[in-house]
Design goal:
Blueprint lengths: L22 E2 L18 H26 L7 H30 L5 H13 L5 H24 L11 H14 L3 H9 L5 H32 L6 H12 L9 H6 L13 H8 L6 E2 L3
Antiparallel strand pairs: 1-2
Helix pairs in contact: 1-2, 1-3, 1-4, 1-7, 2-5, 2-6, 4-5, 4-6, 4-7, 5-10
Length: 291
């Protein structure tokens, strides 16, 4: 059973040969006036995105270290992509620190979310690095799917205050653009593994990551809603409706999630760079070519 793309003798993968990972050095959430429920005055949508953002600074530092741990011996193309990936993720961290500060200025306490991420990452300290890379690969697939959905369906961010919608679109474009880096690093790091071992480890890790992602982000969202006095089954139902029915943020990524388990999967089996191109003009003044 093979659910993993095989590396060709020359190291080729489905990652497009002409892919350029571009560092867009933009700044958001500086000096803007935003409502407490900044996304279309919707407490659920605002809390969901706030909960996601609260995890990003520590999470993206983890991604960077997990990928960098296996860069030795990579071919020049992958080495350059890893370097650009790191630069993009550093910028994402900086901008979500600013976004999180804005949420705190609105009166939200997000320290408990950050603390839980810190404690979880501390538990992984002595785990084999290859498992951290497998977790990063799964989480990068999640962020790429979510980014794809945000770019494909602009309604998700309609009504965002100031430039906060632009922040998420910018982040989404770069997640789509570098979606194959962790996966190709995994292929490089496990080149001497059997196909079945690769599939088994990545599948089990994705299942674990999925359960934790949905459970923890839902709990985080409910915690933020509780800070607005919005508690109980009514608001749990509203969150479930938001994620699974309308707009169905999680429901819409199910096909992409299932694809991860299929034979021959690779993030670039679907070339969705056209979504990036739709927004590229907005970023022209801040483009920095990857080294």
């Amino acid at each position: 059973m093979n659910a993993h793309t095989t590396i060709a003798a020359d190291g080729a993968t489905p990652t497009p040969d002409d892919l350029e990972i571009t560092v867009r050095d933009r700044r958001f959430a500086r000096g803007i006036k935003a409502r407490r429920w900044w996304l279309n005055n919707d407490p659920v949508a605002s809390a969901w995105f706030n909960a996601l953002s609260a995890t990003f600074p520590r999470g993206e530092a983890f991604f960077i270290e997990s990928v960098k741990a296996f860069r030795d011996g990579a071919d020049p193309k992958l080495t350059a992509e890893i370097r650009a990936f790191v630069r993009q993720e550093i910028n994402h961290t900086r901008e979500h620190v600013a976004f999180n500060r804005l949420a705190e200025d609105q009166g939200y306490d997000i320290k408990a979310i950050d603390k839980r991420v810190e404690e979880m990452l501390a538990q992984l300290k002595d785990r084999p690095q290859i498992l951290n890379l497998a977790a990063t690969m799964a989480l990068e697939h999640f962020t790429a799917m979510l980014g794809h959905e945000l770019l494909k369906n602009p309604a998700h961010l309609e009504g965002a205050d100031g430039d906060l919608g632009d922040l998420w679109r910018w982040h989404s474009a770069e997640e789509v653009e570098h979606k194959g880096v962790a996966y190709d690093t995994w292929l490089h790091a496990t080149h001497d593994w059997s196909r079945f071992k690769r599939w088994k480890v990545k599948t089990l890790m994705m299942l674990l990551v999925t359960v934790r992602f949905i459970k923890h982000r839902s709990e985080d969202t409910m915690e933020l809603l509780a800070q607005d006095g919005l508690t109980g089954w009514k608001w749990r139902f509203k969150l479930a409706h938001y994620l699974l029915v309308k707009p169905g943020f999680l429901r819409r990524i199910i096909p992409g999630w299932l694809a991860y388990f299929m034979p021959g999967f690779h993030p670039w089996n679907e070339d969705d760079r056209a979504l990036i191109n739709l927004y590229e003009g907005d970023f022209e003044d801040a483009l920095l070519p990857a080294e």
